[in-house]
Predict the structure.
Amino acid sequence: MTGPRVLVVDDEPQILRALQLKLRGAGYVVDTASTAADALAAAAARPPDAVILDLLLPDGRGTDVATELRSWTSAPILVLSAVGEEAEKVAALDAGADDYVTKPFGVDELLARLRAALRRTAPSGEPVLTVGRLTLDLEKHLLTVDGEPVALTPNEHDLLRLFMRNEGKLLTHPAILREVWGPAYGEESNYLHVYVSHLRRKIEPDPTRPRYLLTEPGVGYRLVDPR
């Protein structure tokens, strides 16, 4: 039985080879690409279960690749980049990435984050949650708003699941980050702000005047049924 298929996209041959060897040794099926065009072609031909994506490619930016992939797949996207600026992290998350690793990186850490991302997308056998006009099928990873399906990335799904399971409860920023992204993200508030903004665009009638996902200034968020 083969493991999950991972597409690795990087224009540095030594990184591509090293990740290919490590991932295959860990039981993954690995496809590789060194350009944005090749990455999109490879993903279309053999849809991956996860993508490891460099931000800087010879024929474009990884953020554009992430945006295109996210238009048709919910597979986790882990971004690699030598750029350590906070704005780049936010831009990658906005493009649909699920995690961000700065070069140079430890392969063991990258593999751990990949395993965590894949666990978040695995079928859960859990029930359906309903809050107002929102219905979230946890097993199918399917959100409907007023009966209409709405696409979610894996992290958006996990974040909404946490809120819906705790309807009406105030959840602090660190608690949300630890629950959805893990202990290492307890202070990464930009992750949370980006994903809350994404969720509001998908679940709120007017994202600029949220009725479901409410901000408690300086503390956290709570999800309520406004009806």
